[in-house]
Amino acid sequence: MYKEDYTKAARASHQRVLDQATEKIKEDHPELEVETLLDEGRPADVIVETAKNEDVDLVVMGSRGMGGVKGWILGSTSRSVVDSCTKPVLIVK
C-alpha cells in the first residue's frame, strides 16, 4: 500500500511540474504546438518508442554530460536516444 501511495503522489507531482512547464512554453511561444506525455520505463527506450509510435518531427532533449567516457559529451540517456532513434534528435546543452 505504501509503495502504491508513493507512486501515485510522485506521478501527481511530476504531472504538476510538466503542466507548469507546458503553460510557460505556451505563454512564451504561443505559435508552438506542445504535446506532453508522462510515462514510465527506461527513459531512452520510452523516448525512442514514443517518437516512433507518435510519428514526431523532432526529439528535443537536454544533455547532462554525466557518467563515464561516453557521458563526457552527452548523458547516457541522450546518447542512447541519438544512437537508436530513427527521428531527428536535437540535444540542448
CATH fold node name of the largest domain: Rossmann fold
Q: Quickly count the helices.
A: 3
Q: Which strand order does the major sheet show?
A: 1-2
The rounded distance between the terminal residues' Cα atoms is: 40 Å
Number of domains: 2
Radius of gyration: 15 Å
Order of helices and strands: HHEHE
Structure keywords:
93 residues, mainly alpha, Rossmann fold, 2 domains, two-stranded parallel ribbon, 2 strands, 51% helix, globular
How is this fold's topology laid out?
Layout: H1 2-28, H2 43-53, E1 59-62, H3 76-84, E2 89-92
Parallel strand pairs: 1-2
Helix pairs in contact: 2-3
Q: Can you describe this structure?
A:
The protein is mostly helical. It has two domains: 1-36, no CATH class; 39-93, 3-Layer(aba) Sandwich (Rossmann fold). Helix content is 51%, strand content 9%. It has three helices and two strands. It has a two-stranded parallel sheet with strand order 1-2. The model has no long low-confidence stretch (mean pLDDT 88).
In short:
By secondary structure, this protein is mostly helical. The protein is 51% helix and 9% strand. It has 2 domains: 1-36, no CATH class; 39-93, Rossmann fold (3-Layer(aba) Sandwich).
